[in-house]
UniProtKB/TrEMBL annotation:
GO molecular function: DNA binding
Name used for this protein in its record: Tyr recombinase domain-containing protein
InterPro entries: DNA_brk_join_enz, Integrase-like_cat_sf, Integrase_catalytic, Tyrosine_recombinase_XerCD
Similarity comment: family membership: Belongs to the 'phage' integrase family.
Domain Tyr recombinase: 172-346
Organism of provenance: Paracoccus siganidrum
UniProt keywords, alphabetically: DNA integration, DNA recombination, DNA-binding
One Pfam family of this chain: Phage_integrase
Superkingdom: Bacteria
Coiled coil: none
TM stretches of this protein: none
GO biological process: DNA integration; DNA recombination
Length: 354
């Protein structure tokens, strides 16, 4: 590796090892030894400090600072692996962000515990978050995923999060929008506004917010003479989605006053940088329309329920939502199909002479 920095001295020691020293600028008699080699990521920073007469040590990584074999050490290794996976494109940045939040909760309480932490300790951690049951379950799910990753790599033998039950029992996540909600929103946000386009996009694609920030005219295509949208959802494991581009959505995309590489643009006329940024803006649009407890995911759920009520099977809903497992779409069809089965069964009794 060729190095060309003023004042940098490469010296071979009697042992055969190589060390680097730096002459302090303005003082040729003073030389500061470097604590890292040129291939270290902080080499340039440490070199410039030495030229200024200051010796600094490299910052240790979270993994290096943690007690080897501890929960904190494993969490640091897991996050470092996820960061590499993000760079490789196999894990989304949003997933990494959520996992960092989980690891922060875990290490705040149990960083110095040994890897074989008792499951009872994780149950205590879950129960401390009883006021936010969905988040409590997400934390346990994230810990379970970390230990699954660790056991596959033989960093530990047991996954202590297996068998810990969920505590979020009841509200079913995002609130599905009602026809009245949709009416109120559209009355407040007329066609041509970004807010109206956002609602129309969510309603007529049932896409996740992570896909909404990416969709644009480049995803438009024609299938058997029908104008359509085709995209690969960001969420890992999702199937490609190809659906007709319905007239209301087509009109909304063409009514936009500002156009760009994506359908949805922020107030600067640029694509939304993250799902969170669009989510915050969409919640603001909802509040402006008097809908304080509504979200984009609630529209996705509403679309699933409406499709089911119109007679679509769970397999048809799978193709719209990008699901790869029938049980994921079954939540929309179960109640409707049970009613139809009951109605048809009871119809067989109509002809009875009673």
């Amino acid at each position: 590796m060729k190095i060309a920095y003023p004042g940098l001295l490469r010296e071979k020691l009697p042992s055969g090892a190589v060390r680097y020293r730096v002459r302090v600028e303005g003082d040729k008699t003073r030389r500061i030894p470097l604590s890292v080699m040129p291939d270290h990521p902080q080499f340039i920073e440490i070199y410039h400090a030495a030229r200024a007469g200051v010796r600094i040590e490299p910052e240790a990584s979270p993994e290096e600072r943690a007690i080897r074999g501890s929960v904190g050490w494993l969490a640091a290794k897991h996050l470092a692996a996820m960061e590499r996976a993000v760079d490789a494109g196999t894990v989304s940045k949003l997933t990494l962000k959520k996992r960092r939040g989980v690891m922060k909760v875990l290490t705040a309480k149990y960083a110095d515990y040994a890897l074989d932490i008792p499951p009872a300790k994780l149950v205590e951690l879950r129960d401390e978050m009883i006021d936010t049951p969905a988040w409590a379950d997400s934390v346990i799910e994230g810990i379970r995923a970390m230990y699954r990753w660790a056991t596959e790599r033989r960093l530990c033998a047991v996954n202590p999060a297996i068998g810990i039950a969920r505590i979020d029992r009841g509200r079913g996540g995002a609130v599905p929008w009602t026809p009245e909600d949709l009416r109120k929103y559209r009355e407040h946000h007329p066609p041509g506004t970004a807010a109206h386009l956002a609602l129309t996009l969510f309603m007529f694609t049932a896409c996740r917010i992570s896909d909404a920030i990416r969709l644009g005219r480049q995803h438009e295509t024609t299938v058997e003479g029908v104008r359509a949208l085709r995209w690969q959802p960001v969420k890992r494991g999702s199937a490609e989605v190809t659906i007709p581009l319905m007239p209301p959505l087509y009109r909304a995309t063409r009514a936009a006053k500002v156009t760009g590489e994506t359908y949805l643009l922020n107030y600067r006329g640029q694509p939304f940088a993250t799902p969170d940024s669009l989510g915050q803006m969409f919640r603001r649009w909802c509040r402006d329309a008097g809908l304080d407890n509504r979200s984009s995911h609630g529209i996705r759920k509403a679309a699933g329920h409406l499709l089911a009520q119109e007679g679509c099977s769970q397999y048809q809903i799978m193709t719209v939502h990008g699901h790869t497992q029938a049980k994921t779409s079954e939540v929309y069809t179960k109640g409707v199909e049970r009613w139809r089965l009951a109605r048809d069964a009871m119809g067989a009794l109509e002809a009875m002479d009673w």
